[in-house]
């Protein structure tokens, strides 16, 4: 991680060509150095953060005055930083009888700030939670005394989590966990605070900025979807081919405990929806044996989406995994204990994340915790099914190799699609897919649950959610189209994105047939599309011309009256 001075040097670099994001920072303490750190780290992440910073301790004035500089700036993201030290100052000044209601009163004020921001701005709100201060008035008994500051502070952090879980555009940045990692002495320096009103030390600023940029990355569709595991001395201790299944180190004794706890961490990631793959230099049958037969293995074959074990180059094997998963290399994390193998992969696939695992396996987890590799801004029940879906995709890839004719293969899949407008059941998955889809995404518009709710009740938009299932299994919701009524004759394709898991199945033809039929039945004569290029969606650059649309200035248009249904082997469910 770069330090503050290194990140500050980035401010002299050329930000043109980077994705511009307007960010407002509202703080009750000095935030100038935080602003510089965020902008410098934004550069390293491909962002030109255009940051407007409110004057010191002007949060309420900026939020409640609709003519304020905040609303003139129209940010896409608002960062609100109310510090624990100011919180303690408020607590100190109220009457003791009010202490027991302190957290509830503060939460109500925070909720009002959030409501005003989201009602008057089309913005996401990142709120920094509170680091702990123990004023030692009650000692340990503070944990049993509801009126104590420590009790109220912890209650407020808990209630903030509850509020965020119910507020689709509110995201918490966990400063408290950073202080736990680095220690209060490294997080906060009294002399700096007294003289400058800065509550964040210079040394901790890059960590706070990293935690914040993690959220901004994820809100913009940049996050990790897959972890690829080496096996020997990474997933278990020892070398399975040499030591044999009975002598590898896993379980509750000695260093085996470190590997078992590492496996539990991977298992939790899998249950959250992260794809788990294996890339090992081993004979496949030998490499699979612990997963199938060792009683202490936490990970089983059912947890692995793609299993590649052979004696080929690991970079080539990772490319094979990528071809099956159809996700970007920058969405992958490769974990391997061997520095040589890590360097081979880094040199050949520079986009992939390859952490520098510590030499001692006992340190793996604590190190990985600090990296926060798998930030997310959404979670749905469908995530738990992702492993099975990718296992099925691997089966499809194997079966497809047996067919010489692609049409015959597609016919053999017996594909069915359910097409529905957005509803309370599919809306969370629609929002999540909009955050995750980067490659097959014509305009790369991101939606939150609140955005979806607005579209559902609007008379100007028509929404379509497509599922896909075949003889191998159900892929769930995999495609979304949003049509906007431009005029009495034209429907504009505001949004068209699709999961890359279902590429090369003819889904785009089925979708076009569906929306063109809808347009014709409702009296429209033209579909109008737009391709907005990003660093990741070049694969759909020719999407509209390939479907028969004709160029009209910067847009693509399809005359529905002359449109002939395109060949598709997908049937409506």
UniProtKB/TrEMBL annotation:
A Pfam family of this chain: FkbH_N
Residues in BF1531-like N-terminal domain copies: 22-216
MF GO annotations: hydrolase activity, acting on ester bonds
NCBIfam families linked: FkbH, HAD-SF-IIIC
Protein name: BF1531-like N-terminal domain-containing protein
């Amino acid at each position: 991680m770069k330090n503050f001075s290194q990140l500050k040097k980035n401010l002299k670099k050329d930000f043109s060509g980077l994705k511009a994001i307007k960010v407002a920072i509202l703080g009750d303490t000095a935030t100038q150095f935080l602003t510089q750190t965020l902008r410098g780290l934004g550069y390293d992440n491909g962002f030109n953060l255009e940051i407007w910073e409110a004057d010191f301790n002007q949060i309420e004035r900026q939020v409640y005055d609709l003519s304020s500089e905040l609303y003139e700036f129209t940010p896409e993201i608002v960062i609100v930083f109310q510090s624990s030290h100011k919180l303690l100052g408020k607590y100190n000044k109220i009457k003791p009888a009010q202490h027991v209601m302190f957290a509830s009163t503060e939460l109500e004020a925070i909720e009002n700030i959030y409501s005003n921001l989201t009602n008057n701005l089309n913005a996401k709100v990142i709120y920094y939670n509170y680091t702990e201060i123990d004023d030692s008035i009650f000692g340990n008994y503070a944990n049993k005394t509801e009126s104590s500051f420590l009790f109220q502070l912890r209650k407020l952090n808990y209630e903030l989590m509850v509020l965020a879980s119910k507020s689709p555009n509110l995201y918490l940045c966990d400063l408290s966990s950073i202080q736990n990692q680095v220690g209060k002495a490294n997080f906060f320096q009294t002399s700096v605070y007294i003289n400058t009103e800065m509550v964040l030390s210079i040394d901790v600023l890059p960590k706070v900025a990293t935690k914040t940029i993690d959220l901004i990355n994820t809100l913009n569709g940049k996050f990790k979807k897959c972890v690829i595991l080496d096996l020997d001395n990474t997933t278990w201790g020892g070398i399975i081919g040499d030591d044999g299944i009975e002598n590898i180190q896993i379980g509750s004794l000695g260093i085996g405990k470190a590997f078992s706890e590492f496996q539990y961490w991977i298992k939790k990631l899998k249950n959250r929806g992260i794809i788990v793959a294996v890339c090992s230099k081993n004979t496949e049958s030998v490499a699979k044996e612990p997963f199938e037969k060792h009683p202490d293995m936490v990970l089983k074959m059912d947890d692995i989406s793609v299993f590649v074990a052979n004696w080929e180059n690991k970079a080539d094997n990772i490319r094979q995994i990528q071809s099956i998963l159809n996700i970007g290399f920058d969405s992958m994390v490769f974990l391997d204990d061997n520095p040589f193998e890590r360097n081979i992969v880094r040199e050949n696939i520079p986009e992939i994340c390859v952490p520098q695992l510590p030499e001692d396996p006992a340190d793996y987890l604590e190190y990985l915790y600090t990296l926060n590799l798998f930030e997310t801004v959404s979670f749905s029940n469908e995530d738990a099914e992702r492993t099975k879906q990718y296992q099925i995709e691997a089966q499809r890839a194997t079966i497809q190799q047996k067919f010489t004719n692609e049409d015959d293969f597609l016919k053999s899949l017996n594909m069915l699609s359910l097409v529905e407008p957005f509803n309370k059941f599919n809306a969370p998955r629609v929002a999540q897919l909009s955050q995750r889809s980067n490659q097959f995404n014509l305009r790369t518009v991101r939606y939150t649950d609140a955005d979806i709710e607005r579209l559902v009740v609007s008379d100007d938009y028509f929404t379509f959610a497509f599922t896909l299932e075949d003889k191998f299994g159900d892929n769930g919701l995999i495609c979304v189209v949003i049509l906007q009524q431009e005029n009495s004759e034209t429907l504009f394709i505001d949004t068209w994105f699709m999961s890359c898991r279902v590429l090369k199945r003819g889904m785009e033809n089925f979708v076009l047939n569906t929306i063109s039929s809808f347009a014709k039945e409702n009296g429209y004569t033209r579909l109008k599309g737009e391709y907005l290029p990003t660093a990741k969606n070049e694969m759909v650059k020719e999407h509209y011309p390939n479907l028969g649309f004709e160029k009209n200035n910067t847009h693509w248009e399809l005359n529905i009256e002359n449109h002939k249904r395109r060949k598709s082997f997908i049937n409506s469910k």
